[in-house]
Amino acid sequence: MKLFDPLKIGAMTIQNRIMVPAMVTHLCKEDGIVTQDTIDRYVRYAAGGAGLIIVEAMAIHQVKSGPLLRISDDKYIQGLRELTHRVHATSDSKIVPQIIHFLKVARTGWRQTADMLSLEEIDQIVEQFGDAVLRAREAGFDGAELHSAHAYTLSSFLSRANPRTDEYGGQTLEGRLRLIGRVIENVRRKAGADFPLGVRINVEEFIKDGYTVVDSKLIAERLAELGVSYISLSAGGKFEDAVHTPGQVLYPYNGYSGDRCMPGDWLPRGLHASLAAEVKTHLLTKGHRVPIAAAGKLDAPQDAERLVAEGSVDIVGIARGLLADPDWPIKVKRGELDRIVQCDYCNVCKALDGTHRTVICALWPQGSIQAPKDDPSVQAPQWADAEKSLTAISKESRVELKWPKAPGATIYQVYRTSEPDGPQMIDAVKVTFWVDNAVLGGHKYRYFVRPCAATGTPGQRSNTTIVDVPAPAYLPPR
Amino acid sequence: MKLFDPLKIGAMTIQNRIMVPAMVTHLCKEDGIVTQDTIDRYVRYAAGGAGLIIVEAMAIHQVKSGPLLRISDDKYIQGLRELTHRVHATSDSKIVPQIIHFLKVARTGWRQTADMLSLEEIDQIVEQFGDAVLRAREAGFDGAELHSAHAYTLSSFLSRANPRTDEYGGQTLEGRLRLIGRVIENVRRKAGADFPLGVRINVEEFIKDGYTVVDSKLIAERLAELGVSYISLSAGGKFEDAVHTPGQVLYPYNGYSGDRCMPGDWLPRGLHASLAAEVKTHLLTKGHRVPIAAAGKLDAPQDAERLVAEGSVDIVGIARGLLADPDWPIKVKRGELDRIVQCDYCNVCKALDGTHRTVICALWPQGSIQAPKDDPSVQAPQWADAEKSLTAISKESRVELKWPKAPGATIYQVYRTSEPDGPQMIDAVKVTFWVDNAVLGGHKYRYFVRPCAATGTPGQRSNTTIVDVPAPAYLPPR
What we know:
Chain A is an alpha/beta fold. In chain A, 27% of the residues lie in helices and 19% in strands. Chain A has helices spanning 36-48, 77-90, 119-138, 153-158, 173-191, 213-225, 256-261, 273-285, 301-309, 320-324, 328-333, 348-354, and strands at residues 7-9, 12-14, 18-20, 52-59, 69-70, 94-100, 144-148, 197-202, 230-234, 292-294, 315-317, 391-395, 398-402, 411-417, 423-429, 433-436, 444-452, 465-468.
């Protein structure tokens, strides 16, 4: 598989094209120092074999912001060095921190915007980014990634909604590019041009008057001219359409742009892959071979392989899929696709992030704050009688499925077969029932359920049940 | 060109694949009766040769709503018959009205939502749609189109955000489909199953928690099962993200979903074509050959031809492009591409709609409420010295262009050449200057300007000017 071809990213070589994008964990405390839980989270990804692990955003400044990692002072280097050391001792995975500056938010819903920064504050941000990346180098990271996506400072300057009217302003593309350009120049000077430096940007903002791929192609071109080591493409996640919950600070992932950034189960697979491919094509046309990473529901192994094989992207970012199962890379490499604990895009992880709680996957065993260790010796869950395990009835335009507990199972994967796509996992649950609200009357649906151990060890699939959903009265007979 | 292959749509055959989608004109009065101006608008499209003309939405009910056509009573038939008669007397174009029901809105920002309708009111809507389509048949239309897209009643029921909890509710796909299903059944019974009936839906809603192509594939499948004659795909245009202007009723096209529905110049060409192609593929897989129309910045002739030729869609909807130049079809057919008055997506038409004023194109001659008649005898505009007409300077990360007036020109088309795409028209203006805010420093840009008569007769292009935009200080020398 092309997904397992190594890739040189500046001075660093990753062993495969699989990236864990930055995901908030809330595993540290308000002091922003790496904890044992933080280390355990990233060591787990390393054990699973991801080529590139991006550590959750760490702040270059000291503004209060809950349990968020910091790299704003030399005192943080020690903890970060322990993190990189432990990851490097585990596998060949490369580890890179995401470096962030964010503007202020208040519980009233107020937020600081790009136009409220003085030129002196901008100069300070430029210097702080350089200092932070130098600390990342000293802490043993393999590179650094600047967070210029979503709702944060660098992205707010890049935005088509940038309200400034000076030389950093939204009136011109060059004005919007000036801050990230100066930051990169400062980082290169302080941390060394040989230190791998990636930048994450939005391929589209997905907000009213926001930028689209028309601009992101040019933004990426400028980043390539600046010699960045890779460009990682995300989408949305903006304050502009965030819904304010009274008494809470704005959460930039609960509007439509948030739906695009962390797409739930009703959004299509690989929803931004074609936009990323457009950026890649544009760069190649302009003679730039900088690696491009994409993300957005790319956890189906065949999708990930296809994108890399056809050259649409160079690196596949899989956030929630690898949260659910950090062993996705080794399982895919070994062809053990049926042993993957597949993300069902329920977005419990997103809800935990939005309420500042420790981010876990709902598919992990109850009470765990880390993914269970893979253990091939775990016995496959077994139904007393697999062939009589699943029953289904059609009721009021729904299909209701139920099945008995299978000893040893913590997860039940629900599959629906609809020709010609073959069986698709449509949900993964810990209970023993499921309701399908998305059926068309007048059609037959086939379902089966597969019990899984927490480690992904699959049991025998249930019987396949066929449900004939009655046609609505208004539909003419076929 | 495949674009000019005829297509059978039920009992009607269109002479080419070019459709004028429904566009509000505000050319009638509050009484909702067809005026001479209304007739002139549609006769102009017929003269231009569009295969299928969809007349702006006409209401099946009597709720007050400004200058909007009505089909809610037999008294409207006479005016509509005059309209169809005049269009049919002009060319082979087929003419189909868009039939609409909408919920109430108030200047306070309040709006009626789907869950406020009683079952009796729903039954009445079902009957009103049937009565309206029968009237359309009696008025001599070639078919009818149900408006089940954007912010209106049928779409609000189809929506994933449908808040009802009864059998018309958003809990199940079948619940969301029930109203449109019943409407179609009623229309077929009252107006005849042989009367061509199209339905326009959103391919995606582009709002928080809204539906995506995952659902629109199934919605289209149901419409195909109901035997509709064509399915027209639009996008967005929802109340949910509309921005309320104090004292005005909500306008469902001024949020992000409105950006998607009537995309401005910063959104990419053909931005929903791949989603439409997904729906088409799904239907073919399920054995449904119902024609699919798509829309969204499809006015580049090569894009329109490619989509039809590759079978991605059957009909290409071009709204603003045909508003700018109703002769687009005959000019493309004759290969007179340089005579097209190209839409520049300035969205003055959208702003006029949003403020309830007569919708015109900003490229038409000052004061016109209709597109000028084509007249090949119009003299080409001429500069005194075309080779010395255009000057350009780079200033503060912008490029400023200016040129003298060319006698006979009403429009100046500004072209930028950036390898390898070839020259692209980047704007069309009536003034004699233009500023390019979207340049990258460190690059050379080439521009030329072409003067056009109001009818599209092009003058000689200006000299091509090359502008070297200085690189920003932070960019390393190449």
